[in-house]
Amino acid sequence: MENRAMLMAIGATISSKIKKRIRENKIKPSANKQNNKATLVETGNLLRSITYTVRGDTIYIGTNVKYARIHHEGGTIRPQRAKFLAIPLTPAAKVKRPLEWENTFIQKGIIFHTLKNGKLEALYKLKKSVEIPARPYMFVDKQDIAQIEEMVRKYVKNMRSK
């Protein structure tokens, strides 16, 4: 195994372990206490975006998803072009913007939609800001380090025997 091949193997192993921790819901604090859905997995975009590359003697593991950093480090989200954030309360509200709905009104910080049968459906909760707790997921743990060390040991042993 040449140096680059070893680094590629390490990159593949660690990015796989990061994805496994997310899939197995080992990211804390959990955001989905009501259901068994893994924290950080709603659409799967973040999970699929975790990749690695090798440049020279360096392995880079990361993601290009815009919201990845706020989930990893935590922080406050505030509206940028509006007075309030509109937090979706229904699956349908997740795919449409508040202004795309007809027959809506706001009451006590909630955007309601009037259904054809006259019943009301709460679509969005309006908030001035939202606190996202830090949920570190891009890390190498002790077991990962032990596995990397073993991969390097095997590589060195192979190189010496050549």
What attributes characterize this protein structure?
2 domains; 4-stranded antiparallel β-sheet; alpha+beta
Global geometry: elongated
The number of domains: 2
* Uncertain ranges: none
Please report the total strand number as a whole number: 8
H/I helix tally: 5
Q: Which whole number gives the mean pLDDT? A: 91
Largest sheet report: 4 strands, antiparallel
Strand line-up in the sheet with most strands? 4-7-6-5
N-end to C-end Cα span: 11 Å
The amount of beta strand, in percent, is 15-25%
Measured as a percent range, the helix fraction is: 25-40%
- Which structural class should the secondary elements be placed in? alpha+beta
Can you put this structure into words, describing what you see?
The chain is α+β, with helices and mostly antiparallel strands and 162 residues long. The protein folds into 2 domains: 104 residues, no CATH class; 50 residues, no CATH class. Helix content is 35%, strand content 23%. The protein is built from 5 helices and 8 strands; from the N terminus they run ααββαββαββββα. Helix 1 runs antiparallel to helix 5. The protein is elongated, with a radius of gyration of 22 Å. 10% of the residues are buried. The mean pLDDT is 91.
Structure summarized in a few sentences:
It is built from five helices and eight strands, in the order ααββαββαββββα.
